[in-house]
Task: structure prediction
Amino acid sequence: MIRILIVDNHPIVRTGLELFFNSKPDLKVVGKLGSGIEIFEFVRRHEVDVIISEIDLPELNGITALRAIKKENKSVNVLMFSSQPEEIYAISTLKAGASGYLNKTADVDTIEAAVRKIHGGEISLSDKMDKHLRYEDTKKSRSRMFKKLSTREVEVLKLLSIGRKNKEIAEELDINEKTVSTYKARLFKKLNVTNIVDLIHQAKHHNLT
Result:
């Protein structure tokens, strides 16, 4: 049984979600609250697995309440369910401790899936937001990889990737062959590879060439 607490300042939202969840054999709404300040006393007195909370709440906003709740109850998973735009608030709520974010335009099946997902220990976001975060993670990964390599190492890597030999690279960069070999050894180490084929593959995978 997944025990759910609904926190929203609109009675119709609380009642609608309660009716829907209680129609499922393994879901149960154990409480409905209209403000953020009420959450603390409720979770101290009742067993709660998932909190579904709006951001815009009277007395104490949902993000502030979220941070405080997670300090006291790390095992409680929180799904922020708000009319606020996800591209602005989803990341900040995840950083504050939420396990998911859904806009109130979501249908009931999506809400149910999100509850089950975060109860299972996963993060739940819309497909659009999930793709955005994956893209940002990829950009950060590439950025970190670039920072690991010096300007000269990147130059050598680019020339290696188009099939240049050590001697040709030395001539093009006006350095000696021994120095080129040194740069290659550094590239192998920094990109964690042992041969030129894997080196070039790694470079292309991280868009370094």
Observations:
- The first strand starts at residue 2 and ends at 7.
- DSSP finds ten helices and five strands in the chain.
- The mean pLDDT is 86.
- The chain has two domains: 2-131, 138-205.
